[in-house]
């Protein structure tokens, strides 16, 4: 299916969705955070879309906003899209979990929480995964300072 066809279908799944193909060959969809779970659920269940595989889920720090990028694939219909969601709340960044839609998201959300501090509503066991429980801060944020390993010149 062509990106234009995907966009026409996906546009009806939510309000204020933003589309772009400038960054990649795949259709990019920016979803308002309040609609993330509902739109993602429809991306998987819609018979014209069937995005059944979340093959890459990545945390991002865009400077002003934190967010997540979801690379989705339909193994049956053989098309892909990129879904992005952002939050401007750097002090308490919270997004809805999609682990109940794509099981692989459960692990990726743990990693994103650990390194970016984004909390996922309804995640079954949100916790530090790689870093120790007493670790302070989120090392993949652009504003993170590792004072223990600073080199003083």
In short:
This protein is an alpha/beta fold and 153 residues long. It has helices spanning 3-10, 36-45, 105-116; strands at 18-20, 27-30, 53-61, 66-73, 80-87, 94-96, 119-121.
CATH superfamily label: NADH:ubiquinone oxidoreductase Nqo5 subunit
CATH class: Alpha Beta
**N-to-C SSE series?**
HEEHEEEEHE
The strand order across the widest sheet is 1-2-5-4-3
CATH topology value? Beta Polymerase, domain 2
**Radius of gyration over all CA atoms, rounded:** 17 Å
| Poorly predicted residue ranges | none
Helix content: 10-25%
User: How many H/I helices?
Assistant: 3
* Main beta sheet: 5 strands, mixed
From the structure above, extract its key features.
153 residues, Beta Polymerase, domain 2, two-stranded parallel ribbon, 20% helix, 25% strand
Summarize the helices and strands and which ones pair or pack.
Elements: H1 3-10, E1 18-20, E2 27-30, H2 36-45, E3 53-61, E4 66-73, E5 80-87, E6 94-96, H3 105-116, E7 119-121
Parallel strand pairs: 2-5, 6-7
Antiparallel strand pairs: 1-2, 3-4, 4-5
Structural commentary:
This protein has 153 residues and is of the alpha/beta class. It has a single domain (3-141), classed as 2-Layer Sandwich (Beta Polymerase, domain 2). It has three helices and seven strands; from the N terminus they run αββαββββαβ. The strands form two sheets. It has a five-stranded mixed beta sheet with strand order 1-2-5-4-3. The termini are far apart.
């Amino acid at each position: 299916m062509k990106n234009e066809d995907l966009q026409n279908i996906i546009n009806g799944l939510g309000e204020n969705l933003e589309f772009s193909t400038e960054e990649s060959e795949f259709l990019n969809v920016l979803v308002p955070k309040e609609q993330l779970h509902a739109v993602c659920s429809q991306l998987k269940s819609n018979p014209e879309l069937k995005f059944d595989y979340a093959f890459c889920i990545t945390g991002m720090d865009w400077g002003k906003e934190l967010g997540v990028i979801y690379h989705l694939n339909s193994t049956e219909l053989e098309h892909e899209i990129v879904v992005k969601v952002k939050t401007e709340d750097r002090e308490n960044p919270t997004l809805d979990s999609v682990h109940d839609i794509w099981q692989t998201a459960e692990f990726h959300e743990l990693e994103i929480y650990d390194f970016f501090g984004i909390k996922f509503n309804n995640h079954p066991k949100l916790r530090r995964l790689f870093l120790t429980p007493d670790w302070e801060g989120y090392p993949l944020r652009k504003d993170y300072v590792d004072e223990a390993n600073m080199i003083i010149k």
